Amino acid sequence: MPFLKKFLLVTMVILVVFSVCTSVFASSDVVEPVKKAANVSWWVWPLSLFVLTFVLGIVAVLGGVGGGVLFVPIVGGFFPFHLDFVRGSGLLVALAGALAAGPGLLKKGMADLRLALPVGLIASACAVVGAMIGLALPTNVVQISLGVTILGIVIIIIMAKKSEFPEVKEADALSTALRITGVYHEVSTGQQINWKIHRTLKGFLLFIVIGVMAGMFGLGAGWANVPTLNLLMGAPLKVAVSSSKFLLSITDTSAAWIYINNGAVLPMIVVPSIIGIMLGSMVGVKILAKTKPSAVRYVVITMLLFAGLRALLKGLNVWK
Amino acid sequence: MGKEVHATEEQLRYATILDIGMKVGMLMLIVSFALYLTGILQPQVPVDELPKLWGLSVHKYLEVKGLHGGWSWLHLLNKGDFLNFTGIVFLGAVTIMCFLAIIPMLFRKKDIAYGIIAMTEVIVLILAASGLLKTGGH
Q1: Which DSSP helix (H) or strand (E) runs through A195?
Q2: Which pTM was predicted?
Q3: How far is B106 from chain A (nearest CA, A)?
Q4: Does the ipTM exceed 0.85?
């Protein structure tokens, strides 16, 4: 079973990278993790980061999640970098992925500019606020909040249903006024799908929270964008997923600028991560075309659960 | 039936600029990182010092190295590490360029609401990019 082999291979690589990272911190209670990590040659970390983000790029594509949501808790939990730099890098990783995917999705009409622009404005303005809050709060508070958020995301991933074509009987007044409606070509059936949305105001209000969280934790926000656009506002799943991906290029840009201007961007962390995750995503797309990736969802859930617990316990000083 | 594309004129313009901007930005990032990694351009912060620094909070890191936030990196473009900011900042500016390109199209089509949304988005992004929004230390 080729898929099972690939699944096991990916899991093994993840475990190896995790164990390499954790073993650096494991041997002594006296020496602080940062000082201990400082004894390792500098090049080990960007190289490990490149390998890890390459794997994360594959897993993210197969698991249907963004790179940022995996990057921040895992790198923040198992690498010696301060959470400030990890969040700055996480935003740039998510931004690079969104910038790369955006043009194709827009040209094919899968991502919709009229849907993304108003929510993008709300989310990006709030992401600025979130980024400023995140950089001003004590690290352990952010770490604990991050852990709780990641565990919440795990619950969302497990519980949230998806609706291919949600039933929207009537477009509401706000979406009608803004003319948020569209048509896309469904390749699998050859049909032209006409779509419209409802509960627009509620959706807009939810993007205030999504924006703040995206900026505060540097997570990207696909995990929240998609259920909001699809289940709440009634956009077809493909339009919701594509518009969410494009939307990240707007939301993460504003938050990324705050991290850049506050000095929370180290090229030695950012660049290997961006290159690694983009190469991994390319490989992931090729594997996706040949395999059924449903089992990878459980790998993603396990990784997030582990990383979320790590962030929470690290913030509580239980697991340093 | 052939595949039809249902994207507006401004959506296609946005996509084209995003595509070019992303490719240029990534190229800048890769080239500048290669110059940094190979040591062709000496970094401001030596690479072997990084493991002692990247575990510090950003406020402490800036204090220890005597660095400043905002656009101060522009004065250090001859340094390998800070040269990377050209690519990073370019990627951060791509979305602004895309919005600036579609604003005239929206107003020409009398799509006032979206013209205003796009203009407000540019203001938000420029404000975020300006460096005026600083945070306190922790």
Answers
A1: strand A191-196
A2: 0.86
A3: 11
A4: yes
